[in-house]
What we know:
alpha+beta
Amino acid sequence: MTEHRIRIYLDNDSEPIADYEPPVTVNLDTFGLPDGQHNLRIEARSHSGRTGTREVPFQVRNGPGITLTGIHADAIVHGKLNFMVNAFEAEEPFEPRRAESPSPIPVWLWVLFLAIMAWSAWYVAVLWTPPPAFAHTPTYVQGTMWQHH
């Protein structure tokens, strides 16, 4: 009978970063890892000698968060390209000018706004009822403006 073990490997290392008897709570300090993509490979061996493997890709971002406005991944560009880059870390003192990155209003929001404005204009034009004092003035005729009394 073999020993029940859990071994944890980081990226493509052949030596485990941890070797435990289950169950175990693992504490991984990512400050020693460079920012970017990494992979945990966990191998568990049962008492019967069978081995199970699970891989968990993850991304480390201990440095400041970087926002980019004006270009996106796999963009097709030509001519001169203007874009804005901002970097801000949670531990930095709060500075409103740098804390948020401005971005343009999305097109779908403009379309929604225009649709609401068009509906509002139609609603007012078709269903508006003038106050009784003005209902029979020459500028307003009940029904359409083309009817003559």
